[in-house]
Amino acid sequence: MDKPLTQHIKKDGSWLTLKEYEAVGGYQALKKVLTLAPAEVTTIVTDSGLKGRGGAGFPTGSKWKTVPMGPDAPAIKYFIANADEMEPGSFKDRLLLEGNPHQLIEGILIGAYAIQARFSYIFLRWAYHQAAKAITQCIREAYEAGYLGEHIAGSDFQLDLSLHTSVGRYICGEETALLNALEGKRANPRSKPPYPTVHGLFGKPTIVNNVETLCNVPLILTNGADWFMKLSKTGEGGTKLYGASGRVKKPGLWELPLGTSLREILEEHAGGMKDGYQFKGVLPGGGSTDFLTEEHLDVPMDYKSVSAVGSRLGTGTLIVLDDKTCPVGMVRNLEQFFAQESCGWCTPCREGLPWTTKLLDSLEKGTGKMKDLDILTFQTHYMAPGNTFCALAPGAMEPLQSALKLFRQDFERHIHEHKCPWE
Amino acid sequence: MSMTNILIDNVPYAVDGSKNVLAASLSLGLNLPYFCWHPALHSVGACRQCAVLKYKNAEDTKGKIVMACLEPIADHLRISIEAPEARQFRAGNIEALMTNHPHDCPVCDEGGECHLQDMTVMTGHNCRRYEFKKRTHTNQYLGPFVNHEMNRCIQCYRCVRFYKEYAGGKDLDVFASHDDVYFGRHEEGVLESEFSGNLVEVCPTGVFTDKTLKKHFTRKWDLTDAPSICHQCGVGCNIIASERYGSIRRILTRYNGDVNGYFLCDRGRFGYEYVNSPQRILAPAIKGDCALANASPEQAIRQISAIIASGKKMIGIGSPQASLESNFLLQQLVGPAHFYAGIPRAEGKLIRRVITLLKNGKVRTPSLAEVKDFDAVFVIGEDVTNTAPMLALNLRQAAKKGPVELVKAMHIPEWNDAAVKDIVQGTTGLFYIATPHHTALDEIATRTYHAHPDDIARLAYAVAQHINAFSSIAGASSSTADAHSPDAGTTANPDADFEALSKSIAAALLAAKKPLIVSGISLYSEALLDSAASITNALKDQAKDPGLVFIVPEANSIGLVMLSDQFLEDAYEKEEPDEDEKPSQADEDTAILLENDLYERTFKGQTDLFLRRQKNIIVLDSLENATTRQATHLLPAATFAEADGTLINNEGRAQRFYQVHQPDNAVRSSWKWLQELQSAASSEPNVPPSASTHFDSILQSLVREFPELTAITTLAPAAGFREGTQKIPREPHRYSGRTAMHANVNVNEPQPPEDADSALSFTMEGYAGVPPPALTPFYWSPGWNSVQAINKYQIEVGGPLHGGNPGKRLFEPSNIPAAILTPNIPAPFTPTPGEWLVLPLYHIFGSDPLSALSPGIKERIPQPYIALNDSDADKTGILEGHYVEVLLNGQKQRLPVKLHTGLPPGTAGLPKGLAATAGLQFPFSTTINSGNHD
Hints:
The complex is a heterodimer.
Chain A: H1 18-23, H2 28-33, H3 38-48, H4 60-65, E1 78-83, H5 92-99, H6 101-115, E2 119-124, H7 129-144, E3 160-165, H8 175-182, E4 206-210, H9 211-223, H10 225-231, E5 239-245, E6 252-257, H11 262-269, E7 279-283, H12 303-308, E8 317-322, H13 327-341, H14 347-365, H15 370-382, H16 392-406, H17 408-416
Parallel strand pairs in A: 1-2, 1-4, 2-3, 5-8
Antiparallel strand pairs in A: 5-6, 7-8
Helix pairs in contact in A: 3-6, 3-10, 5-7, 6-9, 9-10, 13-14, 13-16, 14-15, 15-16
Chain B: E1 3-8, E2 11-16, H1 21-27, E3 51-55, E4 64-67, E5 78-80, H2 84-98, H3 115-123, E6 146-148, H4 158-166, E7 173-175, E8 182-184, H5 198-202, E9 208-210, H6 211-214, E10 224-229, E11 238-244, E12 247-253, H7 266-270, E13 285-287, E14 292-294, H8 297-309, E15 314-317, H9 324-334, E16 339-340, H10 345-360, E17 376-380, H11 384-387, H12 389-409, H13 417-424, E18 430-435, E19 447-450, H14 453-469, H15 479-484, H16 494-511, E20 515-520, H17 526-541, E21 547-551, H18 557-563, H19 568-574, H20 583-587, E22 590-594, H21 598-601, H22 604-612, E23 616-621, E24 633-636, E25 645-648, E26 653-657, H23 670-682, H24 695-705, E27 728-729, E28 760-761, E29 808-809, E30 836-841, H25 855-858, E31 866-868, H26 870-876, E32 883-888, E33 891-898, E34 907-911, E35 924-926, E36 928-929
Parallel strand pairs in B: 1-5, 15-16, 15-22, 17-18, 17-20, 18-19, 20-21, 22-23, 23-24, 27-28, 30-34, 31-33
Antiparallel strand pairs in B: 1-2, 3-4, 3-5, 6-9, 7-8, 10-11, 11-12, 13-14, 13-24, 25-26, 26-29, 30-35, 31-34, 32-33, 32-36
């Protein structure tokens, strides 16, 4: 079982029905969980070392532990699967959502049991129409089979699950903005503290976990924390869905042990660069991570190792930059996306990102000046973590700040040549 | 308040531990720029302007940028405002804001009093690096009060936070996202909120500006300002009134931490325009053979004083719109036995009852500001948003108090507004409203009860009885659950409903830490006042700490009744000629009418009859009205803008207002006219009257006659007061054009008028520091040109003013046993078939006749209508908008019908204060002819 997460996903593009999922052991983890105390479930997940697969890498068990429990805890708590996958370059959750929604539902059920949630939601990216169809059918099946609703699998546990399809803003993936969106408010991030685990949806304790994170949960409960820990190469626990896009021979998505090296993913699984293209750099974890270059190719793709070389594992989906693509243009596209997706709440993000985009645009058009590079560098400091209300703008600065360092000459060529050299 | 030791730029300070770093820094007098934070709206962390460096410990040299507004004060906190990293960040943030802000300061309405300008200068950003296009927006028409210029917006979100969250408005919001966010209405149209004008002060730049000012625009530095008191209702908000070239240009909030704080209602802010009305009476006039003809002040004084000196029968009618001083001097002139408070007896008796209950009762009436601190509210009979708008604004805050207290118990500070709102989720505390019809506050009520005033009083008495019946066995512990029980009052049995409702209100009030009862005289029911007091008495007996607020109709209702217990009918009846008295003798009578249109007060027939019997009708007033047209002698009286005086508000708080400017015509304070008349009448003929007495000496004689008003001599420094050797200038130090203002007439700089009555001067010269609060004409501090310079006038931001909040409370409950009430519970209201009991309906715009003369307000006044109960209308086939014939004081009026107002069966409602309803004495019974709809 080297690909526990994706082993049952069918090649024909159809999702596993309840029967099919049950036939491969589906909902057995849930049944086991219902015999455990909620705290025991959380302990197992904590011991497994599972970290959030949405990008931030926060330990899942630790998050669950901060939810108020016991008789004095609020009677209503919420459990939310964040399926609003909109990170540029990321398409990993899509596979799980379209291929095996029951695995996610079981993960939600286990998580909800661990925190004793009463209601749960799947917050889905609007563009994932196929996933919406799959989830809708699977939720219906789960209700009919008694896995959702009252007396789940004959126990006293009760959980309702609804699918909420987002209207399509990147910021909705930020967990507190997601809560506001679910409440029908503007999707602005919320002030922290208080944290959602204590005051979340409608002011009640709420867990928001990424889809991939939750799909691991039934496996952990079935096979144990040790098993999960041993799946990884570098001791952070589990496998990971790695993806690659760009001018590689075989762009795609692979479940590999956590800690697989960047080089292995690129050269073995993605088949290396397309003929005629040279590797120039890579965003290792989606659009809001720092570029890595040739010298970093041997870094193990886990949370700690990627951070150590100045980037982030993020979503684990590589965006590969080749020598025939303008790095300034690539960053410009990213910044345009982030500027567009800013909620408009805090000044640096709302005003800084459009300015950044306009500067990069100007460089691309050949009207840039040397002082523009200083302004761009200034923007990366201005929108540093902590200076903004949420992580959107600091994330947006990651590809820019690394590009300014790693591809400085390419920026300057735009200025000196009064045009984009790749044009 | 626990003091905490912190280091700011390595200087030790002891600061209030419950605050955030921004509020604490500003309170220390340090300059730290901010936009989204507001002392009444608190912290949300949106603008990122108040960034400071926070160090981990004494050894940390690097520090980390944090937002001061979101950083709690903690022991040994070490921060830096001046660190280069923090300064650069703040300058960069301004630079970012400026990428889209127009560079139009010289032609911007806000220029010279713009918080954004001030903060920009403060951060040092002055060189533009941004070379791209600025984003632009379309502006909206928002009604007669507020101008919209969205291109100037810096997206601080204060407008929507005030308008929606603080004031409960529905029609202003933020639209779109990223750098395209738009603050406005969903479509063009009049802003609905009664508090929309506060956007002008809340907005840190020129997006929302005062449209009435724009019509006769003047820069802040060119205005002559004075500390004043709003005359447009009984609450007594503190205002700054400003003048240029003889006309009043605008009203701003004058911060008073005990009264209105940072805000005003739209009637108060925009209702000033009547001062500039073409209907102003600017010269004395004397009735010749047929019409009034202008006369010189000397002529007028001579003629009127001759009448006074003749010793013929003379009465004076005062006014709740006029100052204590003017009313008092009239009383002195005619003699106390001949002075009448110029309001109908029914109203006067109720105001007297209010005074008795506040002075002799058991329970303290809170200040307007204190209202925000109550956690359960029961409104009895008042449509507060329309009878005392600013009280309604503060009641909205009280409704949030209970839930916010719960959040504070979770160790989340109240100033963390975003966090508090996320947790509170819009829930409101215990809030009950019993009124005859729907009111704007109903939306925040736990329960409402719409009934006839007698039934409302019955409910209130029942609540009091339930509170009295709560023994230690019943306890208040289980009562919260009762209060929230959705079953309360939903059965089919109305008696059981009533019982359940009164029980649940009693339980809620008992469960609260601080319950507040709000009532007033707007429905002309003494039972409502007494039942309200009996609830607070009962709560007091149960060892609770209740508050009792009564709403009175006018700026000096309380003050007037404190001077006299004789009312209009007393004057009218006394003037009825005795049967054996010869009519000719009565013709010799003289009535002096002070700032009072009697046709507003009493029915036309009655008023006509009274005035017809007066030989001399001496009227002191500021604007032409039905009464001034009957005058034989007319004296141009000052409005609040040209007069000094004292008013007593509904709390029993005496407050001083000062004249803004010295008009260049015959207009003067009524008390000045009266004192000149007095002086002329008592001096020998042909001998010039003795030098006039000044304001302070009138105060002295007033308190000699009325010792209970002694506190009014201490409201503000006397006229002789000087800061060092200097008076307090009404004009800012940057006042311009003084030598040019009259250049078309005379190129010499005119001598500024002397103000002998106050320590204020009519010039720009004088004391430049922070003056005593009652004498503060404007807010200005180096680097702080906007209204937010108020920070520098407060001991701590949002707290009391340096020198104490102005105003003096006259009543504290003395718990005199005689005032203890014997319940006088009215019988339930039963409609009489074919008859309607007509109740007054109040409108913030319209029910106050004076502000109604302001062009902006005029646009917002409703057309006359009659409101009917829906089922009554059903029975007679009347539909919304149908015209019906209503009998009003014997005259038929056709009025359109308004339904869905919640009025109980058998009652009807008419808007009070409109020309069509002038002089009606509510409540009254009438008939309605529904035939011939069209």
